[in-house]
Write a structure and sequence with these properties.
By secondary structure, the protein is mainly alpha-helical. The protein is built from 11 helices and no strands. The longest helix is centred in the first third of the chain and has 21 residues. It starts with a helix and ends with a helix.
Length: 191
């Protein structure tokens, strides 16, 4: 795992060597080294382990994604701020299957660090809404759900948002008991 600064140093070194190749008349080599340096610049902004974890997550392989994320030993030193947000976002998705309290911490940290894609931010807020609703914090859940709906501009989470709204409505409806209407006192009078 390379530190983020080392990636830029390697890219600068390759660009310097490409300029040397241009001055010596080896134009093809210079172009090839410039393209090679772009790989390191790309990896500065998009971490390779996070990309591999996303690929594993798309295949529903949580263990494989966790393995790739665990290769990042010190996220603060190795990742830029947005990558740290995605690091916490991915951990939140994986942990949400087992531990809601820990998942809530990861999602909140991901939102504060920032996510570059609106639908990822909407997904994080939708998950936080579900966690808040399960902890009986209905106002916070409703606020997060409306924020998620505003961020979902492409309609990718429409079904999940609709299902969450239906669950919230069902929870607000009073329970009806059929057959034995009335209070216990009225039931004793009848019986």
């Amino acid at each position: 795992m390379y530190n983020k600064i080392i990636k830029l140093i390697i890219a600068a070194g390759i660009i310097a060597f490409a300029i040397y190749q241009f001055t010596e008349g080896y134009i093809g080599n210079g172009i090839m080294f410039i393209l090679l340096s772009l790989i390191f610049v790309f990896l500065y902004f998009k971490n390779e382990f996070i990309l591999l974890a996303f690929l594993r997550l798309r295949k529903q392989d949580f263990e494989g994604a966790k393995k790739w994320l665990n290769k990042i030993k010190n996220p603060e030193a190795a990742l830029v701020t947005k990558q740290q947000g995605y690091y916490n976002y991915l951990h939140g998705i994986m942990v949400s299957q087992t531990n809601m309290n820990e998942a809530e911490k990861y999602f909140k940290k991901a939102i504060t660090l920032g996510l570059s894609m609106d639908h990822d931010l909407a997904m994080a807020k939708l998950n936080l809404s579900g966690i808040a609703f399960s902890k009986r914090r209905k106002q916070e859940a409703q606020r997060l759900l409306t924020e998620a709906q505003k961020l979902d501009k492409r309609g990718m989470l429409t079904d999940q948002i609709k299902m969450m709204k239906e669950n919230m409505k069902r929870a607000q409806m009073p329970n009806q008991h059929y057959g034995s209407g009335g209070s216990l006192r009225q039931q004793k009078r009848r019986g």
